[in-house]
Write a structure and sequence with these properties.
The chain is of the alpha/beta class and 226 residues long. The chain contains 6 helices and 11 strands. The protein has helices at 32-41, 80-91, 111-121, 167-175, 185-191, 212-225, and strands spanning 3-8, 26-27, 30-31, 48-52, 70-73, 98-101, 127-133, 138-141, 147-151, 157-166, 197-200. Strand 2 and strand 3 form a beta hairpin. Helix 2 (80-91) packs across helix 4 (167-175). The structure holds cytidine-5'-triphosphate (CTP) and magnesium ion. Residues 8-16, 21, 23, 52, 76-80, 83, 103-105, 207, 209 line the site of cytidine-5'-triphosphate (CTP).
Length: 226
């Protein structure tokens, strides 16, 4: 049984709003997602590493990647789930292989964090994800920018990646996502009636989404170099 790491990197970064997709922004002299891929390539439990980019990608070939055995799949789709599903179909894993999906945009992930998830799920029937308990008080907004109610914080977690599930079940789950509403693998698996395991993640494993996130990612990566 293998662990196959699949990195969706076919998004356009519309919330970030840079001229190129955020995964190609320069951080510490390398494209942002080079850091992601380089970290995953250092995880001993990972047997294969693939990145999914858009068929229309104009940037990937402009950079030096030097990630050993990286498989580059130009099969990205209109949604994250479609990109993962297309990558999975191209990789053609064995049904029971683990597929570990990690956002290209979470560039501050560490090998230890990935190993923590894989270790926690080794004997798990379903699979699971890194996530963090919600620290702040959570409000539901109502009309006119006013609070409708305060949600009980107990038991609420924020999903991160990596998320790891068996290949055949994940492919079946993603195929259910007709409207592109699924924003992570776990929610697709939940639609099949399974309960993914929550494994404690790390605040440093945040997703670069807005320009304000870049300074923090830079600082974290620079500090690790020292
Ligand atoms: N992704 C993908 N294919 C898509 C959309 C997203 O592979 N059609 C990838 C992104 O490249 C990113 C990850 O999924 O690494 C998480 O998505 P997100 O942070 O939403 O990135 P974007 O979709 O690019 O950003 P935005 O939603 O702001 O447009
Ligand atoms: Mg998106």
């Amino acid at each position: 049984m293998s662990v196959i790491a699949l990195v969706p990197a076919a998004g356009s970064g519309s919330r970030f709003g840079a001229p190129s997709p955020k995964q190609y922004l320069q951080l510490e002299g390398r494209p942002l997602m080079w850091h992601t891929l380089s970290t995953l390539s250092q995880v001993p439990e990972i047997d294969r590493l693939a990145v999914v980019i858009s068929p229309a990608d104009e940037w990937f070939d402009d950079f030096e990647w030097d990630i050993p055995n990286l498989e580059v799949l130009r099969v990205g789709g209109a949604s994250r789930a479609a990109s993962v599903a297309a990558g999975l179909a191209t990789l053609a894993p064995a049904p029971d292989d683990w597929v570990l999906v990690h956002d290209a945009a979470r560039c501050c992930v560490t090998p230890a964090l990935v190993t923590r998830l894989i270790g926690a799920l080794a004997d798990d029937e379903v699979g699971g994800l890194l996530a963090l308990p919600v620290a702040d008080t959570v409000k539901r907004a109502g009309e006119g920018g006013r609070v409708e109610r305060t949600l009980a914080r107990d038991g609420l977690w924020l999903a991160q990646t990596p998320q790891m599930f068996r290949a055949a079940r994940l492919a079946r789950a993603l195929a259910l996502d007709g409207k592109g509403a699924v924003t992570d693998e776990a929610s697709a698996i939940e639609m099949l009636g399974f309960a993914p395991r929550l494994v404690e993640g790390d605040a440093q494993n945040f997703k670069v989404t807005y320009p304000r996130d870049l300074a923090l990612a830079r600082a974290i990566l620079a500090a690790r170099k020292q």
